Amino acid sequence: MDEFSSEKGLVAQSVTTLQPDDPIEGMIIGKSAAIQQVIAAARKIASHATATVLIQGESGTGKDVLARAIHELGRTTTSPGSLFIPINCAAIPETLLESELFGVEAGAYTDAKVSRDGWLSRAHRGTLFLDEIGSMPLFLQAKLLRVLETRSFRRVGGMKEIHVNLRIISATNTDLQAAVARKAFRQDLFYRLNGFPIYMPPLRERREDLPLLIEHFLRRVSANRGEPLTVSPDAMRLMESYSWPGNVRELLNAIERGDILCDNNVIQPKDILSSLPVTPQYADQQLIELLSKLQFPENGLDLPALLSTIERSFIQEALKRCGGNQVHAAQLLSLSRDQLRYRLLEKAVRQLTD
């Protein structure tokens, strides 16, 4: 997805095959069934200007961009000049969140010299996006519930009832139902926010979108740098095999880091290895994939010789992918530099004695 969150400064991209005149063309990128379901849901809810939407998904999947996409789709038919107001509930201190959300009446407290509108007023006829809604303190949850039920509120220190007509979209990467069970989130508010739930899938659930996303980010980085940036086939295979626990945000970070480190405008595996730590989950996944390709011979095998051959083969391949750089090859193999050197020395000794 191609928009930065105004609160986080983070990119989260997703893509689909859209019609040329579609107002969100270029915002959502992907052709997988999972992302197509997201697009279909966004289209259905966009024309319902006062419906509440709850976007759930892991960090970095693009929940903020989906919220903006729903707003962009909806404002073409409802309020063309409406605003999209994004709020990160976790980034603002509890003492400030209330006044920022509802506004302040002059004289409400010492520093309140004049009356000031809050985000609810500014989002009138538009969209208020409450990111990380699970971080909202309980006392504010009750006030937000009243806004959802009456479409009205009072400024901090005020008596006048202010009425608004707006769409409220919330997002979370936490389990709100579990928070309800812990009494950390109001059950009645959860049901109000969950009027139209949308699940934003992680990258590992839509791997077929990876090449499209990588191509999109390469074009974007190329435009910023003024010359084309490409990815080598080995680097592409490496990125396509990775599980991306940080999702689209992590993918973008890897490409931007590769742009800084690469030579001759071509990202190689060594340029992105530092961005792709081999987590235990990823290692297990790789092992399962490798084992699925092996078959035990009917006449048995020489296991020590086989393991030695496999190790030598992978070490050679790692060094080849990293241009002979032992530090980067060791990272790719999850070895220390000394462990890799010991194995190379052991190999050289065997060759001399054979």
Automatic annotation (TrEMBL):
<dbReference type="Pfam" id="PF00158">
    <property type="entry name" value="Sigma54_activat"/>
</dbReference>
<dbReference type="GO" id="GO:0005524">
    <property type="term" value="F:ATP binding"/>
</dbReference>
<dbReference type="GO" id="GO:0006355">
    <property type="term" value="P:regulation of DNA-templated transcription"/>
</dbReference>
<feature type="domain" description="Sigma-54 factor interaction">
    <location>
        <begin position="28"/>
        <end position="260"/>
    </location>
</feature>
<keyword id="KW-0805">Transcription regulation</keyword>
<dbReference type="InterPro" id="IPR025662">
    <property type="entry name" value="Sigma_54_int_dom_ATP-bd_1"/>
</dbReference>
<keyword id="KW-0804">Transcription</keyword>
<keyword id="KW-0067">ATP-binding</keyword>
<dbReference type="InterPro" id="IPR009057">
    <property type="entry name" value="Homeodomain-like_sf"/>
</dbReference>
<dbReference type="GO" id="GO:0043565">
    <property type="term" value="F:sequence-specific DNA binding"/>
</dbReference>
<dbReference type="InterPro" id="IPR027417">
    <property type="entry name" value="P-loop_NTPase"/>
</dbReference>
<dbReference type="InterPro" id="IPR025944">
    <property type="entry name" value="Sigma_54_int_dom_CS"/>
</dbReference>
<dbReference type="InterPro" id="IPR002078">
    <property type="entry name" value="Sigma_54_int"/>
</dbReference>
<dbReference type="InterPro" id="IPR002197">
    <property type="entry name" value="HTH_Fis"/>
</dbReference>
<keyword id="KW-0547">Nucleotide-binding</keyword>
<dbReference type="InterPro" id="IPR003593">
    <property type="entry name" value="AAA+_ATPase"/>
</dbReference>
<dbReference type="InterPro" id="IPR058031">
    <property type="entry name" value="AAA_lid_NorR"/>
</dbReference>
<keyword id="KW-0238">DNA-binding</keyword>
<dbReference type="Pfam" id="PF02954">
    <property type="entry name" value="HTH_8"/>
</dbReference>
<dbReference type="Pfam" id="PF25601">
    <property type="entry name" value="AAA_lid_14"/>
</dbReference>
<protein>
    <recommendedName>
        <fullName>Sigma-54 factor interaction domain-containing protein</fullName>
    </recommendedName>
</protein>
